[in-house]
């Protein structure tokens, strides 16, 4: 169900802003990110349908959400166990699952896509859903490195298409980058900003430029750290210690790369270096390529720059 609200923006010019109040959310992709977004949306009172092509992944995602929420409840409602149980039940009742995106989008205010980072696959998904979703439904992609404009080009709702870039783990990380293309309407953008606020997140406004804000700054920094290590300017341990103790970063660049996943880092590096072959900031890294070729993707495989076994 969509409602339009009007509220007054305080600022230099007070003007009425319209936004769609998002109540029913369809999240496509039940992996790390999709499950995290579903958890946060369900625990802030949204009716969420989590969609994946794989039923087992969906069951695992729901189990994961329940386990995470139980831990939250134990901490947050330590002296009010009944209120905690009620919160948990309500949140879990807000989550349903489906393997048929086409049928569930018919009653949704917002589709958040968190599937594989592949332009063609994302375009095919949105192109199909565009024909089935109601006119008011907003589409958003959680892509880390692709252009929202390119993804949206497979639809006829360019004004109702934007980016919602969450960070991993979604329940913990407080930021959402909200991305407007040159065709995103003000109403859509305001709706996405408002939705992020309803999730309890802090949002920043981004243009549809490669990497938005965070990854555009983070990737060249990490690649530069890897190049320092390749040249022997510092050991990876020393570079990590230096950035943690010298800059107050919670993780050094090698620890962070292992956490993000070296396969993901390489995917972004490959895309950007192909698109900007003359920009040394995005140049290929031999060490990164070698580790990925060896299947050393970081924490998730037990080894990346460091060993985790
Ligand atoms: N992992 C991160 O740190 C991170 C952070 C921000 C954004 N992202 C972006 O979020 C997206 C998802 O990343 P992830 O790490 O959750 O990936 P993941 O591999 O954990 O999950 C992707 C899920 O999508 C499902 N899927 C694939 N194609 C589908 C389709 N056509 N329809 C329905 N489901 C489909 C897969 O079965 C899988 O469960 C990517 O675009 C990625 O760039 C990732």
Automatic annotation (TrEMBL):
Catalytic activity of the protein: (3S)-hydroxyhexadecanoyl-CoA + NAD(+) = 3-oxohexadecanoyl-CoA + NADH + H(+); (3S)-hydroxydecanoyl-CoA + NAD(+) = 3-oxodecanoyl-CoA + NADH + H(+); (3S)-3-hydroxybutanoyl-CoA + NAD(+) = acetoacetyl-CoA + NADH + H(+); a (3S)-3-hydroxyacyl-CoA + NAD(+) = a 3-oxoacyl-CoA + NADH + H(+)
UniProt keyword list: Acetylation, Differentiation, Fatty acid metabolism, Hydroxylation, Lipid metabolism, Mitochondrion, NAD, Oxidoreductase, Spermatogenesis, Transit peptide
Pathway this chain belongs to: Lipid metabolism; fatty acid beta-oxidation
Cellular component, GO, one term: mitochondrial matrix
Site feature location: Important for catalytic activity: 165
Enzyme Commission code(s) on record: 1.1.1.35
Subunit description: Homodimer. Interacts with GLUD1; this interaction inhibits the activation of glutamate dehydrogenase 1 (GLUD1).
Family: Belongs to the 3-hydroxyacyl-CoA dehydrogenase family.
Protein name according to UniProt: Hydroxyacyl-coenzyme A dehydrogenase, mitochondrial
Source organism of this protein record: Gymnodraco acuticeps
């Amino acid at each position: 169900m969509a409602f339009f609200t009007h509220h007054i923006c305080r600022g230099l010019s007070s003007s009425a802003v319209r936004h769609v109040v998002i109540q029913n959310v369809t999240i496509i992709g039940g992996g790390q990110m999709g499950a995290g977004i579903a958890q946060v949306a369900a625990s802030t009172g949204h009716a969420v349908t989590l969609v994946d092509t794989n039923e087992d992944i969906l069951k695992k995602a729901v189990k994961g959400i329940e386990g995470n929420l139980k831990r939250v409840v134990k901490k947050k409602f330590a002296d009010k166990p009944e209120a905690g149980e009620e919160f948990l039940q309500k949140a879990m009742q807000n989550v349903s699952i489906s393997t048929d995106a086409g049928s569930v989008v018919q009653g949704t205010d917002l589709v958040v896509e968190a599937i594989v980072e592949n332009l063609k696959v994302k375009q095919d998904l949105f192109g199909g859903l565009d024909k089935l979703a109601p006119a008011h439904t907003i589409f958003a992609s959680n892509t880390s490195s692709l252009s929202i404009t390119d993804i949206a080009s497979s639809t006829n709702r360019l004004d109702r298409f934007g980016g919602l870039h969450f960070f991993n783990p979604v329940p913990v990380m407080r930021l959402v980058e909200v991305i407007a293309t040159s065709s995103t309407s003000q109403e859509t953008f305001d709706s996405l900003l408002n939705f992020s606020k309803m999730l309890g997140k802090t949002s920043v406004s981004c243009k549809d430029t490669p990497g938005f804000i965070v990854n555009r700054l983070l990737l060249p920094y990490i690649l530069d750290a890897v190049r320092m290590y390749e040249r022997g300017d510092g050991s990876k341990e020393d570079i990590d210690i230096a950035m943690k103790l010298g800059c107050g970063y919670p993780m050094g660049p090698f620890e962070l790369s292992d956490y993000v996943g070296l396969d993901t880092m390489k995917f972004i590096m490959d895309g950007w270096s192909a698109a900007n072959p003359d920009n040394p900031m995005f140049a290929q890294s031999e060490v990164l390529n070698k580790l990925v070729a060896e299947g050393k993707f970081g924490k998730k495989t037990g080894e990346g720059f460091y060993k985790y076994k």
